[in-house]
Structures are given as C-alpha cells and as structure tokens.
Design brief:
This protein is of the alpha+beta class. It contains eight helices and four strands.
Length: about 170
C-alpha cells in the first residue's frame, strides 16, 4: 500500500474556498444545523471520537484518507459538540480540497497553522455557515455571536470569526 502524503495547499483564495464549500454542501445536501456524522458516513468516511488517553497520545493525523469513499476523521475527547462540528467540517475540507475527494492518500496533521490548515478552516466556515444564509441570520439576530452560533451549532467564537471575515462586526 502506498504511503500517506502530506496535504498540499490548493492555493485558492479565501473567497474561492468558501464558494467550493458552499457548492459542496449543496451537492451533498447539507443544510445549516444538520448533523454531520451521517453525511460523513454517506460519503464513505467514519468519525472516531478518541477517548481521553488516546487524545493525549495521538500522533497520527486527524484525517486519514485511504482512497475515494474511504477516510477516517479523528476527534479529540477534550472538546464539545460545537467544536467537534467545526473540526469535522475542517477535516472534510482537507478531504475535498487536499485529497481531491480521496484520490490522493493523505494524512492531515492534528496540529499546525499553515496555508493548508487555513484553507480547511475557510472550507469549514463556508460549509457550515454559507454566506447568504449567514448574513440573513446576522441581521435577524442583531449580530449577536451567541444567537448566530446557535443557528449553525458552532461556537460563538466561530460565528464571530465568520462575521469579521464577512465584514459583519458584532454589534
């Protein structure tokens, strides 16, 4: 079996990555507030929630792509549901952007802050909080990050970062 590669940046802009994410959400019929685990299973992947000791000792990637429709996302034991949702969407971003939907065997590292990780974060934000819907929700919720976050089942911090990226500063 061939070895895992390190993910390589797509070099798309933040706006381009968000468009890819929104289009992919439509393609796979994912709506804001949906549970993501059933989607991952439909795509041929699995989500593994690590136990506390496994989370501490984990050295392999948060995403292992074995091939098309064959991947595993590992989630830490030390986070809550909102963070887990964003993490899973982030790893899905690696799958879509960096493994070409499983056509490249990759292992995405658990830690790091580089272009590849930024792209996966941009994907997760666009996938979970599509721009048009997000703008409407911000208007309805008077740009309150906690209320906006509840709509998308993400953390208030994730909602706030998305607001700032779309020039919608919290009120």
């Amino acid at each position: 079996m061939e070895p895992f590669e390190q993910p390589q940046p797509s070099n798309k802009t933040k706006a381009e990555v968000a468009k890819v994410a929104e289009a992919y959400a439509k393609e796979v019929d994912f709506m804001p507030g949906d549970r993501i685990e059933p989607l991952i299973e439909r795509l041929g992947g699995c989500v593994t929630y690590l136990r506390s000791l496994e989370s501490i000792e984990a050295t392999d990637g948060s995403l292992l792509v074995y091939g098309p429709r064959n991947f595993e996302i590992k989630v830490s034991a030390f986070t809550g549901p909102e963070r887990d949702l964003f993490t899973i969407a982030h790893e899905l971003g690696h799958y879509v952007l960096h493994s070409d939907r499983g056509n490249k065997r990759i292992k995405a590292a658990r830690f790091g802050s580089d272009r590849v990780e930024w792209e996966a974060n941009w994907f997760a934000a666009g996938f979970l909080m599509p721009e048009e819907d997000f703008r409407l929700t911000c208007a309805k919720c008077e740009r309150n990050p906690s209320l906006v976050a509840a709509r998308y089942m993400v953390s208030p911090k994730a909602a706030q970062v998305r607001m700032l990226s779309l020039s919608l500063a919290p009120l």
